[in-house]
Amino acid sequence: MNFQVTVLKILVSYPDGFAVMADLKRDMAILATSGRDWAERTKRLAARAPDLDIFSQGLVERLNGGWRITEKGRGLLELMEARPGEPVPASELPAAEPLPAPRLHDSVRLGRAQRRQRRRAARDRARAKAS
């Protein structure tokens, strides 16, 4: 299983593309034990973008105890999935960028209602998966 492709696929499945670390770990564990199909699929996708680095290329950002997929990340994932069997040209991969220093207001930006809404949505997803 390719870790970076799996992270992109998990994050894109969440509303707003954000997942807290506990949700990411849970989903990774589920996918890692789901069988060979998932492992083969992520390897095929990863082969289309051999120089993939989700953090230095700005595809995923870390914030508020979790990770969020960026628009660049969504675009690259769509590109990887749209071209079966073809590698993504290096010119279409985002260039690695130096990571900016974290800004204080990023960690404070989410209000209490938004955090509560995300927790509620995560509980609902967990209940739906369990049934």
Walkthrough of the structure:
The protein has one domain. The chain is built from six helices and three strands, in the order αβααββααα. Helix 1 crosses helix 2 and helix 1 packs across helix 3. The longest helix has 19 residues. It starts with a helix and ends with a helix. The model has no long low-confidence stretch (mean pLDDT 81).
So what's the oligomer here?
single chain
Which term fits the overall shape? globular
How much helix is in the residues?
40-55%
The chain-level mean pLDDT equals 81
Strand content: 5-15%
Structural domain tally: 1
Biased composition (Basic residues): 112-122
Region (Disordered): 84-131
Biased composition (Low complexity): 88-98
Could you give a short description of this structure?
With 131 residues, the protein is mainly alpha-helical.
Label this structure with key terms:
131 residues; mainly alpha; 3-stranded antiparallel sheet
SSE blueprint and pairings:
Blueprint: H1 3-13, E1 18-20, H2 21-32, H3 36-47, E2 60-63, E3 66-69, H4 71-82, H5 104-108, H6 112-130
Antiparallel strand pairs: 1-3, 2-3
Helix pairs in contact: 1-2, 1-3
